[in-house]
Amino acid sequence: MLELHWYVVHTYSGHEQKVADALKQRLEAFGLKEQITEILVPTQEKIVIDAGKKKTIRERLFPGYVMVRMILTDETWGVVRNTTGVTGFVGAGAKPTPLPAHEVDAILKFTKLEAPKFELKFKVDETVKVIDGPFTDFLGKVDEIDEEKGKVKVLVSVFGRETPIELDFLQVSRL
């Protein structure tokens, strides 16, 4: 009895999801759902600041690669290998090499992690510099910290008056 193993398929960069979708359609067409059981584009949540707004995105962990859990036969190899966007299997020589179980476990665990919470780098009354947004290069004093939201309220001097502004942790740095 042949076993299910995880294999890594090399794709054109940026075509990982297209390959995964095309491969799922081909499984249906060829009736191979028993031999190819999972197709995974490993991604991770990441927090980015774009135009002053915080967004959570899913970033590919291994650009140009898709993981496929399958029983390796000539038929399954051919179906995967001949999928549009696939350039080949990862492995020594002409034979695909299955991923070790501990590596698969580590990758799967990593993809399930939520976006990292912000590290608390500031203290109340500490002087900080604004590094992003309309108040870039202003200096201010930390007034409040909201760890849950990743926000910090900073008092900056605008026209000689202390003005509170709320910023993301990523928008300020320590002096």
Automatic annotation (TrEMBL):
Chain ranges of the NusG-like N-terminal domain: 3-111
Keyword Isomerase: no
InterPro entries cross-referenced by the UniProt entry: KOW, NGN, NGN-like_dom, NGN_dom_sf, NusG-like, Rib_uL2_dom2, Transcrpt_antiterm_NusG, Transcrpt_antiterm_NusG_bac_CS
Parts of the chain that traverse the membrane: none
Gene Ontology terms: biological process: DNA-templated transcription elongation; DNA-templated transcription termination; regulation of DNA-templated transcription elongation; transcription antitermination
Highest taxon above the source species: Bacteria
Keyword Transcription regulation: yes
Family annotation (Pfam families): KOW, NusG
GO CC term, one of those recorded: cytosol
UniProt keyword annotations, A-Z: Transcription, Transcription antitermination, Transcription regulation, Transcription termination
Every KOW domain range: 121-148
SUPFAM superfamilies membership: N-utilization substance G protein NusG, N-terminal domain (SSF82679), Translation proteins SH3-like domain (SSF50104)
Function: Participates in transcription elongation, termination and antitermination.
Family assignment from sequence similarity: Belongs to the NusG family.
Name the UniProt record assigns to this protein: Transcription termination/antitermination protein NusG
Source organism per UniProt: candidate division WWE3 bacterium RBG_19FT_COMBO_53_11
Source organism phylogeny: Bacteria, Katanobacteria
Record gene name: nusG
